[in-house]
Amino acid sequence: MTLHLLNARLIDPADGYDGPGALRIEGSEIAEVIRGTSPSVSGIDCEGRVLAPGLVDVRVFVGEPGARHRESFRTAGEAAAAGGVTTFVAQPNTSPVLDDPALVEFALSRAREEARVNVHVMAALTKGLEGRELSEQQLLLDAGAVALTDGDHVVAEAKVLGTVMAYAKGLGALIAHATQEPSLSRGASATTGEMASRLGLPAAPAIAERMALERDLALVEATGCRYHAAQISTAGALPPLARARDAGLDVTAATSIHHLTLNEFDIAEYATFFKLTPPLRAEQDRLAMVEAIASGAIDIICSSHDPQDEEAKRLPFEEAAAGAVGLETFLPACLRLVHEGRLSLTTLFQRASHAPAQRLGLPGGRLAPGAPADLVLFDPDAPFVLNRESLRSMSKNTPFDRQRLQGRVMGTWVGGERVFGD
Amino acid sequence: MFAHRHLLGIAPLSPQDITEILDLSDSYVDLNRQGAKHSDVLNGRTQINLFFESSTRTMASFEIAGKRLGADVMNMNVLASSMNKGETLIDTAVTLNAMHPDLLVVRHQNSGAVDLLAQKVNCAVLNAGDGRHEHPTQALLDALTIRRHKGRLQRLTIAICGDIANSRVARSNMLCLGKMENRVRVIAPPTLLPSGVDRFGVEVFTDMEQGLEGCDVVMMLRIQNERLTGGAIPSTREYYHRYGLTREKLAIAKPDAIVMHPGPMNRGVEIDAEIADDVERSVIQEQVEMGVAVRMAVLDKLARNPEVADE
Question: Would you call B168 an interface residue with chain A, using a CB distance cutoff of 8 Å?
Answer without folding.
Answer: yes
